[in-house]
Amino acid sequence: MAFITEPLPSAVDKSSLNDISDGFESLPYRPEAVNGPKFSAGPALPTLDKLGVEELPEDVNALDFARKWINSFAQYISSCDVEGLLSLLVEDAFWRDILAMTWDFRTLHTKPRIRQFLLDRLSVSKLNSLRLDENMVELERPYPDLAWIQALFKFETDVGKGSGVFRLVPLPESNGALEWKAHLILTTLDELKGFPEKIGRLREQSPNHGKWQEQRRREMEFRNEDPKVLVAGAGHAGLEIAARLKYLDIPTLVVERHPRVGDNWRTRYEYLHLHTLVGVDHMAYLPFPSTWPQYPAASKLAGWMESYAHTLELNVWTSSEVIGAEQDESTKNWIVTVRRLETGQERTFTVNHLVCAVGWGGGLPKMPVYPGMEQFKGRVMHSSQHKVAKDHIGKKVVVVGSGTSAHDICSDHVENGVDVTMVQRSPTYIMSVKEGVPRVYHIYNEGGPSLENADLITASYPNPLLKLMHQRLTNIIAEADETILDGLRRRGFKLSMGDEGSGSLTLAWTRGGGYYLDVGASQMIIDGTIKLKNDSLIDRFTETGIKFQDGSELPCDIVIFATGYQKSRDGLIKLLGNKFSSKIKPIWDVDAEGEFNGAWRDIGVPNLWCMMGGLGQCRLHSKHLALQIKALQEGIWNGSRYSA
C-alpha cells in the first residue's frame, strides 16, 4: 500500500496530526505511537524537530544534493568502505534489500545493524555502475514537519541489474547550512545478467505461418516433457507468477480446479467489487485499459483473468487438481500427481519447483461453531457459499461479521428488500473510498509516476516506517470521513483505528480483515436499513434464531458467517498433506524486521514457494519470486540467503 506524498490540504494543520479520536474502541492512539519518543531506539519518523532543523530553506536544490550524495555513495561502494557509507546515513536509517544483496527480503534498521550487514555482504554483492535517474529526483513535503529528497537510481551486481531509492533528510551543520544524509536506502534486483525477460525488443521476432495453433496445443499438453515449475491455483497470484516464468523461458503448468480461469472470482457473491484504485491493480505485462471502471466488479475481473491467460499464452489446466505431492530428498524435485476432474485421468509430473497460489487459507472457510447449531431450523452458511440476496426475499437474515464481505452482503440484502441484521463481534476500521482510497493510493493516481516507478517507490518504504506514515494518514482520513464516522458512533457501531492507529494497513498484514472500505453500506447502518446487533456476544443457537450472552434473542431464517478464511499455511498443508506441517514456516503476518513471512521467499522447504497477496503485491513480487527460481535453475544462486 502507498500513501500520500503530496502537500497536505490547507484545511489540515500540523497540530491535528496526532489528535486522539474519541469513540474508537482500539488501542489508545497516542502521539508517541505516531512519531515515536523523540530519542526512541525504535522506528520513528525523521521529523524536522527530531533532526534539529527549525526551518527548511525555500531554495533547496534537490538535484545537486542527490548528485553529491550518490557520487559519494558510489565511491564508497567501489572501495568497499563501510565506514564511509555509514557516514552518509543518519543514526536510525533503514536499508531495505530485496534479493540484490541478500537473496531475501530484509530490512536493516539503525547504523549498527547496517554496519554488520555491509561488512557481511558489500564485497560479496559487488555493487557497481550506480546511475542516478535525474528525472526522478524531488524534494517532498508529505507533512509540514517532514521533508526529504527522494531519488531513484540504477545499479548492477555481479549477477544482475537492479533499481534503488534513497531519501535524504536535512541535518544542521555548525555554520548554519544543511547537510543531507540518507534515512532510507532500497536496493532491489530487477534482472539476471544474460537472462532478461523476453519482452519488448526481445520478444519473438519470426513469423509463425500456420503453426501457432499446433504449437500451443503441444505446449499446453506437456506430452513429451514435464514442466519445470507447477503452479497450484490460477487466481491472479498463480497467473502472474506463471507469466513471469514464461517470459524467463521456464516451462510452467498452472493447475486450476475450477472449470474456467477466473472462477475463484466469478463464483463468489455477485455484489463483490474491488475497493482499491484500478491503477493499483494492474497485472504484469498487461495493464487494464484506460476505459476500465475505477472499481471493477468481481465478475468483470474474472473475465479479464481468463483473457489474460489466453493473451499471454499461459499453460493452464482447468478442471484439474493436485492430488499428491512428494519431494525427492536427494534432488529436491517434486513428484506431483494431477487429476483431470472431467475425465478422471491422472498424470504424474517431476518438476523442479512447486508454487502454491491457493489464496488466503486455500479457500478454507473460518466457520465458528456454537452450541445448538444443529437444532436451528433455518439455514447456516459461510459467506463463500452465498451468491445473491434475492434468494432470501421474505426471510430474516443475520450476517455475522463486520468486515468487507459482511458489509457487501448486508448491502445486497437491503437493496433486495430483505430484512438483514449485522452482528458485530469486534471493532471495525471504516474508511470511505471517496476520502481514503485516493489518499492511501495517491502514488497510483492518474498523472503520477510510471507504474514501474510507483511500485519501486512503494517498495522502498519498509513496513515499520510505512506503519508510522499510515498512523498519521489514518487521522487525516478520519477527519475527512467525520460525518460518516459520527453517524456510525451514534448508531452504536464499534469503530477501530486499526493496530496502533494505522488503519487498514496492518490489519491486512496480520488478519486479512477487520476493516471496510466504505462504498455505501455505512450509510445503510446509519439509516437503520442494515440493522445492528453488537451489545452482546453470541451464546448459542435456538430452533428459531440466535441467543446472546445477555439473554437477548434474534429470530432469523438465514445465518451467514462472514468470518473470513483460515490461515494461509493451512491451505498449503491441505494441498501437500500433514507430512509437511512441521517444515512449513509461518505464512503472512510480518517478522521482526517487518517483512512478510513466507510469501515470495523461503518457506522452510526447498523449491516450495507461496505466491499470494493483493493484485498490486502480486504484480511486483511475482518478478522477485520468478527471479529466485530462474537463478536456481541456471545455477547462478545456490539457495543460501543472508541470515545474520
UniProtKB/TrEMBL annotation:
Pfam families: FMO-like. This is FAD/NAD(P)-binding domain-containing protein. Keywords: FAD, Flavoprotein, Oxidoreductase. Transmembrane segments: none annotated. InterPro entries: Auxin_biosynth/cation_transpt, FAD/NAD-bd_sf, Flavin_mOase-like. SUPFAM superfamilies: FAD/NAD(P)-binding domain. Gene3D superfamilies: FAD/NAD(P)-binding domain. PANTHER family: FLAVIN-BINDING MONOOXYGENASE-LIKE PROTEIN (AFU_ORTHOLOGUE AFUA_4G09220) (PTHR43539), MONOOXYGENASE, PUTATIVE-RELATED (PTHR43539:SF26). GO terms for molecular function: flavin adenine dinucleotide binding; N,N-dimethylaniline monooxygenase activity; NADP binding. Coiled coil: none annotated. The lineage of its organism: Eukaryota, Fungi, Dikarya, Basidiomycota, Agaricomycotina.
